[in-house]
Amino acid sequence: MSATTMDATKRAAAHKHKHSLHRQRQWALWGSYIALGVFVIMFLVPPFYTLMTSLKSSAEISAQSGSPWIVHHPTLENFWYLITYPNFQTYYLNSVMVTVVTVVVSMVISVMAAFSLARMGFWGSQVLATGVFLTYLVPASLLFIPLFQIVGALGLINNVWALVLLYPTLAVPFCTWIMIGYFSSIPKELDEAALIDGAGYVQILLRIFIPVAMPGIIAATIFAFTVSWGAFLYPLAYLYTSNQMVLTVGIISDLIRGDVFQWGKIMAACLLASMPPIIIYAFLMDYYVAGLTAGATKG
Amino acid sequence: MAEVSCRKVVKEYDGGVQAVKGIDLEIADHEFVVLVGPSGCGKSTTLRMIAGLEEISGGEIWIGGDIVNDVPPRDRDIAMVFQNYALYPHMSVFDNMAFGLKLRKFPKDEIKRRVDEAARILDIVPLLERKPRALSGGQRQRVAMGRAIVRNPKVFLFDEPLSNLDAKLRVQMRTEIKKVHQTVRTTTVYVTHDQVEAMTLADRVVVMNGGIIEQVGSPQELYHNPATRFVAGFIGSPAMNFLPCRVQDGRNGGLALRVTDKITLPVPPDRQDRYGKYKGREMVLGIRPEHLFEYHEQGKPNWTRVDLPVDVVEPMGMETMVHFFVDGAPVCARVDPATHAEPGEMLPLTADLNQMHLMEPDTGRVV
């Protein structure tokens, strides 16, 4: 076989190989689109149904005529009712207050704990770091009975401040874990340079680590916010009067009376309650992903 | 500015591993001292102990007449340049350089004056408002040096500052560092594993190996008069050739070194007395590649001719490296680039034995 013929054969084989790679990639892409499409539909159908129902009057909901996915006579009466309903305002304010305080307390504790565990290298810090994460694995449903004793002893049963005390127990371990991962990814030379420049540990934390680790801090903050905003078990267990309730339990205790479900108002309340997380996620999603990835890739 | 003194300094890690085994080192005011050695020799640990970033397990470290064993880094009045620059990524170049001064509550005018002055010395004035991520490797290293200069510390510590740069930039920055030292004259301790960097920068080079200091001296001293086989092999590129030999009687009542059955080299007359007591003993002959030449009849007629089969030829432009094997031991000669050496062919060689070294095989000591 001549050299020219051999070259042509090799070129044809290379072309075929390239073509097959292209086809494999296309299949992979189609597979990804289909899988993602299924997920998107699964996750978006409930909010869509919630939105549709919230725009219907009680009469239209109970009539059960036509497709439940279509609104025939859209109305904002459910939203208006909730906005002007004093109890709902109280729940909302309580949720905001509990969440803000929880996030601040959790982040202060987590950042300081993570800095000391990741950077100060004291005796037993490794074991302690693992211990912090293990506490996150204990389910809240196991803890609420012993915690009831503690909250009772502190005289905080049916007091919204009990949640401020309890939520950090859920948020701090995971936030600390995220922050340990993030702080560990910051080169050691950075704090050594700061030490030589004349900084103490507090200054290193405040002036170097916090600004550098901002994506991680935002990721942890979003997590603490989500835990606090969406928690259901603890408020259900410890709060029972309207003036102390937060949104998650307030909605069901007020809008479900016996076997009467005020679906339109419940759905509108759910949408209103979802607004803060949606807004925060939308604006900070990039930071959230960056923060979680940094934590995940550091061993 | 200050002198630095390490007295019987030991660093022992958990588990009893000694990284530094009781070193003594005196560094004079204004001096540029380079610690050089292979990975794990203890050079960086020594530097970090001087900086206060590693605790000292034993001995004393003095800076400017004060013992600093228990003094935290910020109170030692030192500045350090790291291998990976360690610039604060969220701060501008100006803020990076000013950070130490701000922490020490310097007035704003003074901070600006010092940063501007350092930026001028290092030619980074146009970069002052940029963030580190917008700088090249060389510019980042300049900023790291600027951060050290503005503090006007007693001692500069450099921890392999050029290792992250490409070869061309490394040479350029090496010159910059030397120029900066000539300008500010601050006592400098510089760590590198690159012996060329050590030779070109240092007033004195400290060669470390296995946690001890093998030899301290000027670059020329270390090159021409190495104290041990390790130093002889570490300093100089390509490395010195080492050939096992026996000291025996030669012609005309002199001494000779028998390298192989076919190769016997006469000991130069001025070394006869020194090597006389090793007669009959197995030793190691050390000779640098630049002291091996292609043999020419008209050149050095009295020098011994040795014909060796060429293994590899490496033309470098201004010189050519030719590699051989002598009884299994690799030998390199730095010859004229006009050589006609070809792999597999014999090349007549000769050596300037006035430049040779003789070492004890067991201790490695140069005799």
Task: Note down, in words, how this protein is organized.
The complex is a heterodimer of chains A (about 300) and B (about 375). Chain A has 13 helices and two strands. Chain A starts with a helix and ends with a helix. Chain A has a two-stranded antiparallel ribbon with strand order 1-2. Chain A is an all-alpha fold. In chain A, helix 8 (about 190-195) packs across helix 9 (about 200-210). The longest helix of chain A is centred in the N-terminal third of the chain and has 52 residues, at about 5-55. In chain B, about 25% of the residues lie in helices and about 30% in strands. In chain B, helix 2 crosses helix 3 (about 110-120), helix 3 (about 110-120) packs across helix 4 (about 135-150) and helix 4 (about 135-150) packs parallel to helix 5. Chain B is elongated. A six-stranded mixed beta sheet of chain B has the order 6-7-8-3-9-10, with helices on both faces. With about 375 residues, chain B is of the alpha+beta class. Classes of the chains: A mainly alpha (about 300), B alpha+beta (about 375).
